[in-house]
Each structure stands twice: as structure tokens, then as C-alpha cells.
């Protein structure tokens, strides 16, 4: 049996059916590449506090994949309340799990090759263009075309080459 290279996968633990299909496709593609997805609450369960456990898992991995699925929709509210740039939310705001940001930060600090997939409409932090040295790919979980699936697969294939290089180092 060949060694499977461990990679950290950051994703919410609760997904809707469209998001789950993307998650399943991504983890299947990782397996086809000989990678072993690891994540707190999915493959690994905490022995101490969650942030410390994320660090230990990430440290033992050779790459990080962030799946930025929308977890919160804000349709009414105020941004930067009480500041000179205060503004009313004018369009639906989609927010990921805060764990995506924490885990991406740890993986980046550990200098792991990063690949970030982000659901359309999710932004901020690691999901802003240019925020990471890895690759950022957006998708629409509700309208995935054959081309979209192929793009995800190709991005994973390219990122895997970096993960293998990190594994051999």
C-alpha cells in the first residue's frame, strides 16, 4: 500500500447538499492524488483545545486546502458602525466559518503550500485576491458545470505537485 501524504482540509462540519457535493468531489480528488485529508472533527478529534489541535494537525501535514463555503448570510446590517466609513449593507453578505481564517493563518505561518477554493460571494481575509501566496479559485456550488469541476480537479493536480515537493524536502 502506497503512503498517502497528509494534507490539512479546512471546511465547515455542516454543509448543505450542494456544498457537500463539492466537498466530496474535492476529497475524492485528493485521494486520487494519493493525499490523505486531515481535519479537526472529521479525521482527527481533539485531545486538548481546538486551536492547539489544529496547530498539531497542520504541523504534521504537507499542504493546506481551504474550502470557503458560505455559512452565514447577512441581509441587513451596518458595516464598521461608529466609524467615519460606516455603511449600510447594500447586498447580501456571505461569510465563511471563522475557522477557515484561523486554519489558513496557521498553515501560512507554517509555510505549507496553500490552495483556496471559495464559494461565490464569500470574501474577506484569506478569500481576498492577493491575500495568500497560494492559489485562489472561486466556484458556484449551485451551478457547477463540467468545466467548473475540471478546473477544480486541475487546481488540485497542480497544487499536489507542490505538496509532493514539500513532502520530499
Structure commentary:
There is one protein chain. With 169 residues, the chain is an alpha/beta fold. 36% of the residues lie in helices and 21% in strands. Strand 5 (78-79) and strand 6 (87-88) form a beta hairpin. Helix 1 (17-32) packs across helix 4 (146-168) and helix 2 packs across helix 3. The two termini are 22 Å apart. The mean pLDDT is 91.
Q: pLDDT below 50 for ≥5 consecutive residues: which ranges?
A: none
Task: Supply the CATH architecture.
Answer: 3-Layer(aba) Sandwich
Summarize the helix and strand pattern as letters.
Answer: EHEHEEEEEHEEH
For the largest beta-sheet, the strand count, sense and barrel status come to: 5 strands, parallel
Can you tell me the CATH class?
Answer: Alpha Beta
Query: Which word captures the global form?
Result: globular
Q: What's the overall average pLDDT, rounded?
A: 91
**Total strand segments:** 9
CATH topology: Rossmann fold
Report the span from N to C terminus. Answer: 22 Å
Count of discrete alpha- or pi-helical segments spanning 4 or more residues: 4
The radius of gyration computed from the alpha-carbon positions, rounded to a whole number of angstroms, is: 17 Å
Task: Report helical residue fraction.
Answer: 25-40%
The total tally of domains equals 1
Structural class: alpha/beta
The CATH homologous superfamily name equals: Flavodoxin domain
- The portion of residues forming beta strands comes to 15-25%
Strand order of the largest sheet: 2-1-3-8-9
Amino acid at each position: 500500500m502506497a503512503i498517502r501524504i497528509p494534507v490539512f482540509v479546512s471546511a465547515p462540519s455542516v454543509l448543505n447538499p450542494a456544498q457537500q457535493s463539492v466537498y466530496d468531489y474535492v476529497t475524492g480528488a485528493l485521494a486520487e492524488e494519493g493525499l490523505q485529508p486531515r481535519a479537526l472533527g472529521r479525521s482527527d478529534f481533539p485531545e486538548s483545545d481546538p486551536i492547539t489541535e489544529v496547530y498539531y494537525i497542520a504541523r504534521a501535514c504537507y499542504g493546506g486546502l481551504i474550502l470557503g463555503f458560505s455559512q452565514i448570510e447577512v441581509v441587513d446590517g451596518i458595516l464598521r458602525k461608529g466609524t467615519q466609513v460606516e455603511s449600510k449593507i447594500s447586498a447580501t453578505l456571505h461569510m465563511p466559518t471563522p475557522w477557515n481564517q484561523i486554519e489558513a493563518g496557521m498553515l501560512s505561518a507554517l509555510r505549507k503550500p496553500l490552495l483556496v477554493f471559495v464559494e461565490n460571494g464569500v470574501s474577506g481575509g484569506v478569500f481576498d485576491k492577493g491575500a495568500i501566496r497560494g492559489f485562489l479559485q472561486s466556484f458556484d456550488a449551485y451551478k457547477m458545470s463540467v468545466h467548473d469541476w475540471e478546473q477544480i480537479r486541475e487546481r488540485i493536480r497542480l497544487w499536489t505537485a507542490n505538496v509532493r515537493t514539500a513532502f520530499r524536502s
